[in-house]
Amino acid sequence: DIKGFVFDLDGVITVTSIYHSKAWHQIADEVGTKWSDKLANSLKGVDRVHSLARILKAGGKETAYTDQQKKDLMDKKNHLYLQYVDKMGSDEILPGIKSFLADLKRHHYAISLASSSRNSPKVLKKLNLTSYFGKVVDPATLKHGKPDPEIYAKGAKILNLDPRRCIGIEDAVVGVQSINAAGETSIGIGDSKVLHEADMVFPDTSKLTLANIKKHMDQ
Ligand code: BG6
Ligand code: MG
Predict the structure, then answer these.
(1) Residue identifier of the C-alpha nearest atom 2 of ligand 1
(2) Where does substrate bind (predicted)?
(3) What is the ipTM of this complex?
(4) Which parts of the chain have pLDDT scores under 50?
(5) What is the reported pLDDT for 219?
(6) What is the per-residue pLDDT for 188?
């Protein structure tokens, strides 16, 4: 029986994956890496350090920047990203998420957050969703980022739940892989071809309901 839900944030609860992309796009332009949908997709769910590494690699610039310059680029990206976040409000919550969270609460499911983003407390506050997420994995405490299972394993642990009693929800391929490796049931939000490793995929968050999940699990 499922007892808990472990959520990704960017691209599942809110539109911020777009803002991350826009900010990284600007950094890619600055370092001379050609931006593409493929590159953008490969950054989804990936932490700051590894996102920059991928952008530099895509432009053949792995060794062109010092550690200090890389730090400055990451700070710049975060500054650009936070300019978008500052303007956010609860209308940036993705369709159906608010009622899904309320439904989970009503049915006494445990809820935690497993986002790679260090900005998630700020984003939750902007969305007025902090009250749902008393349990948040702090990505600063992790040894390994997604697709490693560590973050989703912690998402279950902070709920005192066996991972097998949890469902993880993700929009990123590496996120689905992390959920699966942690031994949880995975829900992908997005393109079922891209997220084919997920136990079930919904095209968008409006389809994310307890009824639809139960339907899938009974199949
Ligand atoms: C993930 C996003 O949730 O967090 C990535 O999908 C982002 O795009 C990563 O790079 C790290 O976020 P932050 O806010 O700590 O730089
Ligand atoms: Mg995401």
Answers:
(1) 45
(2) 8-10, 24, 43-48, 51, 77, 115-119, 146
(3) 0.98
(4) none
(5) 81
(6) 98
Q: Tokens 């960017």, residue?
A: 10
For the record, the structure tokens of 120 come out as 């998630």
How much is the pTM?
0.96
Long-range contacts of 126-133 (CB under 8 A, 24+ apart): 126/85, 126/88, 126/89, 126/90, 126/92, 127/13, 127/14, 127/88, 127/89, 127/90, 127/92, 127/93, 128/90, 129/13, 129/90, 129/93, 129/98, 129/101, 132/101, 132/105, 133/7
* Residue pointed to by tokens 């991928």: 54
Dist. CA 15–CA 19, nearest whole Å: 8
Q: Using DSSP, how many helices (H) and how many strands (E) does the chain show? A: 9, 5
Looking at the DSSP assignment, which residues form a beta bridge with residue 112?
6
Q: Are 167 and 5 spatial neighbours (Cβ–Cβ below 8 Å)?
A: yes
What is the spatial distance between Cα 28 and Cα 107, in angstroms, rounded to a whole number? 44
Residue holding tokens 């986002």?
115
Establish whether residue 178 lines the binding site of ligand 1, counting it when its CB lies within 6 angstroms of any ligand atom.
no
The catalytic residue positions are 8, 10
C-alpha 102: how far from chain center: 20
Q: Does residue 20's CB lie within 6 angstroms of at least one atom of ligand 1?
A: yes
- Torsion angle in degrees (nearest 10) through CA of 143, 144, 148, 154: 40
